[in-house]
Automatic annotation (TrEMBL):
Domain CMP/dCMP-type deaminase: start-end pairs: 13-126
Family label: Belongs to the cytidine and deoxycytidylate deaminase family. ADAT2 subfamily.
Entry function: Catalyzes the deamination of adenosine to inosine at the wobble position 34 of tRNA(Arg2).
Protein's UniProt name: tRNA-specific adenosine deaminase
Species of origin: Streptomyces griseomycini
Amino acid sequence: MQTAPGPPDPVRDPWRPAMRLALDEAGRAVRGGDVPVGAVVLAPDGTTVLARGHNEREAGGDPTAHAEVLAVRRAAAELGEWRLAGCTLVVTLEPCTMCAGAIQQARVDRVVYGARDEKAGAAGSLWDLLRDRRLNHRPEVIEGVLAGECARLLTEFFRER
């Protein structure tokens, strides 16, 4: 039995297409033997994809090769500028503290994420580094976009291990 879709959500619905791209990236992480987290960086127009990334820690033997960090690095290279002003990072899992630091340093304007990370999240669930008033840059945070699909991908991955 299929459930009826809920009412329109003007905050989250516009980000669903980009989250689907991030979910595709997360699938690439699984194929590489890594935790399924995927990310995309959107240009200031909110639709043009500047960069993509997925976890590559296992493939590269690099503990910092998280989807967010890789996507931010690639977007900066694409723009030829480390400041990602006006850009949006869309990621399947709430960023950790390391990724939150990279996001803050890159001056990303908005972070959109799917599933909450109750064990290591740094965008509201465990910590809230991204919105910490002591920092000089605080991006807008939108959580819960396709949260069920994002969480299910993680649950299935860890169930098999």
